[in-house]
Amino acid sequence: MRGLSRTALLAGGIAGAFALTTAPAISQGPPGLSAIDKSNPAASRQDANLKPHATPPIVTPVDKLPLDKLKLPAGFKAEVFSSGHPGGRTMVMGPKGTIFMGTRLLGRVYAITEKDGKREVRTLLTGLTQPSGLAMKDGALYVLAINKVLRFDDIENKLDNPGEGTDLTDKFNLPPEIHHNWKYAAFGPDGKLYIQVGANCNICEINPGIHGQIRRYNPDGSGMEIVARGVRNTVGFDWHPVTKELWFTDNGRDWAGDAGPEDELNRVAKGQEGANYGFPYCHANGIADPDIKMPNACAGVVMPAALTGPHSAGLGILFYTGEMFPKGYQNTALIARRGSWNKAQKFGYDVVLARTTPDGKAKIEPFMTGLLDEKANEFFGRPTYLFQMKDGSLLVSDEQNGATYRISYDAKTAAPASAPKKK
């Protein structure tokens, strides 16, 4: 793979100039797609014209970003951190401070660097099939597309010419179907690489040994174990800083009504690795599926720690461990809800808090709102993932606008009740 070929400066930026560079494509064949869906839209009595919202493949100018619409608790402030990375979603950081971003349909991986107060956005990789899964370990960037697993060693010293990377695809042996198979990946406290494999349908009978699960591997792709089963489509998980238990978001099925079943926040309790979380037979807090039926559909199913709303599309989850935010935010989870499409009255398009309780449940509260105009039923951005910076500030990626927002806190401007109360 040759070095990057050209650089184009993008318009403006609150923290300085942003630049975008492009790279040659990595070639790979098209993956397969299953066609085993049992959805019944007519029975759902929903608007048959509902369809997913397209993600623009273009740059939103900085002065057009919906920064002025963002609403946060007192003392918090939002500003543009980076722009000019269309479709940017997942974020990881290298040891030298480079932020890498994955995408879905655009097939790109971006790298964001900073020098002399200016941030540069470059397209590090192109031509991959939905490379949204990124993970970082010992200076190596793991890139997980639908039908590729690549490792780029010492990546921060090779940003101008990352090469082809080490191909680990055969080692991980992931299924090739596209549906719900775009990845989220992260290294856990145990040093294992955790990866989700979604259900290859909206609603269908799945092979529980292949789809609808969270797996973990050794970094080289060996030693695969199934951590959670019956998981329809999680593309976000994190570990509680104290208990080290895995928590994950899960997007509920479509075409079963505007009211849900609601999306979920789940917890893998200690000693419960490999448990069943319900899909495809049982949803939310014990709702039997109307299209895929079985007796006692919810028997033995782990119920959610919390429901996160109908069709809200909760993606990234992050337990806050920084010191910038008030103490009430310590060890509290934040969830980016990308927002609904299979619902006439739109819902989500925000970031919420999930305050865990001693009984293993959680309570959902608003945190960052303003991107949804409920009266007009239109949205202005789609939060997808979260990243905690070293100074304790929070980055929120907005896939719709190709930007990230930095959320900071200043006690001097805060009201006394700005932090969530601990119980």
Describe the overall structure.
- Helix content is 2%, strand content 34%.
- By secondary structure, it is mainly β.
- The strands form nine sheets. A five-stranded mixed sheet has the order 12-13-14-15-19, with no helix packed on it. Strands 3-31-30-29 form a four-stranded antiparallel sheet, with no helix packed on it. A four-stranded antiparallel sheet has the order 4-5-6-7, with no helix packed on it.
- Strand 5 (99-102) and strand 6 (109-115) form a beta hairpin.
- The longest helix is centred in the first third of the chain and has 4 residues, at 41-44.
- It is globular, with a radius of gyration of 20 Å.
- 48% of the residues are buried.
Low-pLDDT stretches are 1-19, 27-34
Which strand order does the major sheet show?
Answer: 12-13-14-15-19
Q: Sketch the major β-sheet.
A: 5 strands, mixed
Helix content: under 10%
Q: Total strand count, please?
A: 31
- Secondary structure class reads mainly beta
- Backbone CA Rg: 20 Å
Report how far the terminal alpha carbons are from each other: 54 Å
| Mean pLDDT score | 91
**Residues in β-strands, percent:** 25-35%
Overall form: globular
Counting DSSP H or I runs of 4 or more residues, the number of helices is 2
Strand and helix map with partners:
Elements lengths: L5 E4 L9 E4 L18 H4 L31 E8 L7 E3 L5 E4 L6 E7 L2 E8 L7 E5 L2 E5 L4 E4 L13 E2 L1 H4 L12 E3 L5 E5 L15 E5 L7 E5 L7 E3 L6 E5 L11 E7 L6 E2 L5 E2 L3 E2 L17 E5 L3 E6 L13 E5 L12 E7 L5 E7 L3 E2 L4 E2 L3 E6 L5 E5 L4 E7 L14
Parallel strand pairs: 15-19
Antiparallel strand pairs: 1-2, 3-31, 4-5, 5-6, 6-7, 8-9, 9-10, 10-11, 12-13, 13-14, 14-15, 16-17, 17-18, 18-22, 20-21, 23-24, 24-25, 25-26, 27-28, 29-30, 30-31
